[in-house]
Amino acid sequence: MAQALSAQVSWPVRIGSDASANRATGFKEHNNVCFNNKSWISTPLGLKAKNVQLKYQFKVQSTSLQQAGKSKVSVTPLELENAKEPPLNLYKPKEPYTATIVSVERIVGPKAPGETCHIVIDHGGDVPYWEGQSYGVIPPGENPKKPGTPNTVRLYSIASTRYGDSFDGKTTSLCVRRAVYYDPETGKEDPSKKGICSNFLCDSKPGDKIQITGPSGKIMLLPEDPKATHIMIATGTGVAPFRGYLRRMFMEAVPTYHFGGLAWLFLGVANTDSLLYDDEFNSYLRDYPDNFRYDKALSRQEKNKSGGKMYVQDKIEEYSDEIFKLLDSGAHIYFCGLKGMMPGIQTTLKRVAEERGENWDEKLSQLKKNKQWHVEVY
Predict the structure, then answer these.
(1) Catalytic annotation present for 156
(2) What are 238-262's pLDDT values in tens digits?
(3) Helix (H) or strand (E) holding 265
(4) Buried b (16+ CB within 10 A) or exposed e, 122-139
(5) Annotated binding site for NADP(+), which residues?
(6) Is the bond into 255 cis (omega within 30 degrees of 0)?
(7) Where does NADP(+) bind (predicted)?
(8) Is 317 tagged catalytic?
(9) DSSP per residue over 268-312, as a string?
(10) Is 305 exposed, middle or buried (0-12, 13-18, 19+ CB in 10 A)?
């Protein structure tokens, strides 16, 4: 939504919902709950999934970014807060869930290298998840390497909170970059080598069906402490889980979760047109300056102190003293993006540690032992 949110922030809202819906529902507690015969939480949603797809009616409500930040959005059903453990693998590749595409929106500008889309998927409340988890997507067609068998599952980090972009617990959002291949000799695109799943998702239309699995993953889950410090380091679409974190912290009104810690996002992309959800993040920066910091590394526009391209590890080095002090005080640090980001980051952290007279290998081992180190790269 980086392009669409210039002066206002917009989100789809189910027609007929209002802030009083939470109070009027009258949920009753039970011992357990099942989503399509799959057990998960100890108390039920209490509401049956409403009609999906364009059974799912949307209107777009807009509010100023200032208002969005200071007047948080009500969410339902609040029973999603009652689970003691995250939902895991409710749907598997042999028995996926059939969901529905709600919207597909290009969220980068014309000068961005490549296309990235924000994709909203309706799961009807049947495939709940927590912030930091992933969905699997099975694109249609046969596996080209194994004719006669379905395509393999591709994992995508979820870019929304458990309540989704419609704040009703029935959608999820993915941030997907279209994978294309250019022949190095001719410089022309070779469609035969394009990414099957990313192109399927980016070409999807509202109402299209999609096979999903999951949710999966525990390494990127937010800790329970609402006063914790979170240092989030992303390249490109790796910002997806952090968007979910930040919406939970600063956009949604969850009665049992009041964030009072520090969230610090480092985002590395090629240029300004490549920034993802930038207006959303800037609204948090303006409205919650004591709780949110936001630093960008634009590799094709900025130079590091040595005159080379500015990568996210250069920003880490710039603020290394603060980062190390926060880690020593118990901060959590998260990395998400292409796996090629990690060697440069690790080299930078090791050099900084040595300059501080610390042994990086020992420090890293302690961070992992304390469950402060979270990595999800692909």
Answers:
(1) yes
(2) 999 999 999 999 999 999 999 999 9
(3) strand 262-269
(4) bbbbbbbbbbbbbbbbbb
(5) 157, 177, 237, 299-300, 309, 337-338, 376
(6) no
(7) 157, 177, 237, 299-300, 309, 337-338, 376
(8) no
(9) EESSGGG-SSHHHHHHHHHH-TTTEEEEEEETTT-B-TTSSB--H
(10) exposed
